[in-house]
Amino acid sequence: MTPKKSDFRCLDRMRVRWAEVDLQKIVFNAHYLMYFDTALAALWRGFAADYHPTMALMDGDLYVKKVSIEYFASAEYDDVIDVGLRCARIGNSSITLQGGIFRGQQLLVTGELIYVFADPHSQTSKPVPPGLRRLYEGFDAGEQMVQQRLGNWQTLGDGSTALRHQVFAQEQGIAPDLMCDAHDATGVHAVFVNLLEQPIACGRLVHESASCGRIGRMAVARPLRSSGLGGQLLQSLVEASRQRGDRAVTLHAQVSAQSFYEKHGFTAQGPVFDEAGIPHIEMQKTF
To answer: pLDDT digits over 189-242, tens only?
Structure first.
């Protein structure tokens, strides 16, 4: 059956680059494979999962077995195209994806991509793990892929610590002993998890004073940044502050993220200062 654009929950928008056009001034046929391959990253962002840690957790990896493409019309230089992917079938060890590339509502190219789940060392096939099956089937069924947890350190500390270590220590080079402090024990913590219970975003709310809260330790897994997840996390902590009766909430924003917080109603207070070797600025939102 010929797919329609509305058939795809995952649509990755791209713009055709000059380097992808051939002497006929249309996209060289092999680049459509690259478009589908690039859209796989968007599909995994839709899963709210980080591909490589997930494959390591499942002790396997996905390998291309077969790809077929059918051409209906050509994309041209500077066209905006939407590349859709969806799961068509999951067998014992294989996953078949159906793809469609659209310019507006016009179907340009369809594709079928067959992957085999296999041992990364011997490259022999293995059964598709239930967790991986859940991601593909749940996404195409329209399930909510992210769940929010709000609670105390005893309940959510493990997930927060793991994500803080990934973002603050490994990516930003912050000393591990600065990731956690005494405020964790008394703070309200927010952790977002995916369908595999992997933490993908975290933050906390502590008391700044009797009528003011402070948000901090905000972290989002790298593949899911710019997906709106950080905004959802921030809003959940702001709302927790509002509901407990605070009149304002503050935070120490990394200067590189100042515009992000401004979009969510925070304003800068005072000069830039150093914290853990990174330029910060205090910001506040009043209720």
So the answer is: 999 999 999 999 999 999 988 899 999 999 999 999 988 999 999 999 999 999
* pLDDT tens digits for range 224-233: 998 899 999 9
What architecture does CATH give domain 5-140?
Roll (3.10)
CA distance 199 to 129: 20
Q: Is 59 exposed, middle or buried (0-12, 13-18, 19+ CB in 10 A)?
A: exposed
> The CATH number of 147-286 is which of 3.40.630.30, 3.90.70.10, 3.30.420.40, 3.10.20.30?
3.40.630.30
Portions of the chain given CATH number 3.40.630.30: 147-286
Residue 137's identity, in one-letter code, is E
Which two three-digit tokens encode residue 44?
A: 């995994």
Torsion of CA 260, 264, 265, 268, to 10 degrees: -20
Whether residue 94 is predicted with pLDDT greater than 90 in this model: the reply is: yes
